[in-house]
């Protein structure tokens, strides 16, 4: 798993630095029809993609909305199969593992989950994007406990023919000061 993470980070660095080999290896099969009629102007395609970050922002906003709705299926649909989840200093594995062993069991004990003051900034680099979020949240549990926290998250997303998927998600929180 560490090798996959190292490769993901290396790929982001290469993309950010404009390494041509990486750009040439991208799969543009979603544009196959256009490619068969005339050669694709890759620079124009990438410029148009970089101008549109709404899809990546929507994926992260949808994750927050699915979490507050406690909708496990909606959350799972937003993550890549080979995703990585890190929470409060712990490697939680893939989203599937995280859902089965951590978040899923917690969802049953939650009666209310709300976010406050969310901020979201996304930077897109071709077929990849990274997000930075801040927020507060409140969780009310069936046993009467209430958890109030300030949180932050960073994420890496990848775009393919199926749209934006979260590849890596890292969140942490603390009690308000």
Description:
The chain has 177 residues and is of the alpha+beta class. It has a domain at 56-177: Roll (Nuclear Transport Factor 2, Chain: A), CATH 3.10.450.50. It has seven helices and six strands; from the N terminus they run ααααααββαββββ. It has helices at residues 2-16, 20-24, 32-37, 42-51, 54-69, 72-76, 95-109, and strands at residues 79-87, 90-93, 110-125, 128-141, 146-160, 163-174. It has a six-stranded mixed beta sheet. Strand 4 and strand 5 form a beta hairpin. The longest helix has 16 residues, at 54-69. The chain is globular and about 60 Å long. It starts with a helix and ends with a strand. Residues 1-36 have low confidence and may be disordered.
Brief summary:
This protein is an alpha+beta fold and 177 residues long. It is built from 7 helices and 6 strands.
């Amino acid at each position: 798993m560490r090798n996959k993470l190292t490769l993901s980070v290396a790929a982001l660095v290469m993309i950010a630095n404009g390494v041509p080999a990486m750009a040439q290896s991208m799969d543009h099969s979603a544009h196959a029809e256009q490619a068969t009629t005339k050669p694709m102007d890759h620079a124009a395609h990438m410029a148009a993609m970089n101008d549109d970050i709404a899809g990546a922002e929507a994926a992260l906003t949808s994750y927050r909305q699915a979490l507050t709705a406690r909708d496990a299926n909606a959350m799972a649909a937003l993550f890549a199969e080979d995703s990585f989840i890190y929470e409060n200093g712990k490697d939680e594995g893939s989203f599937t593992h995280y859902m089965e062993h951590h978040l899923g069991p917690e969802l049953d004990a939650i009666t209310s989950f709300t976010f406050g003051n969310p901020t979201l900034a996304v930077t897109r680099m071709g077929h990849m994007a990274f997000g930075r979020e801040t927020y507060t949240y409140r969780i009310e549990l069936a046993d009467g406990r209430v958890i109030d926290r300030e949180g932050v998250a960073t994420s890496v997303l990848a775009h393919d023919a199926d749209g934006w998927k979260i590849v890596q998600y890292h969140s942490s929180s603390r009690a308000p000061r």
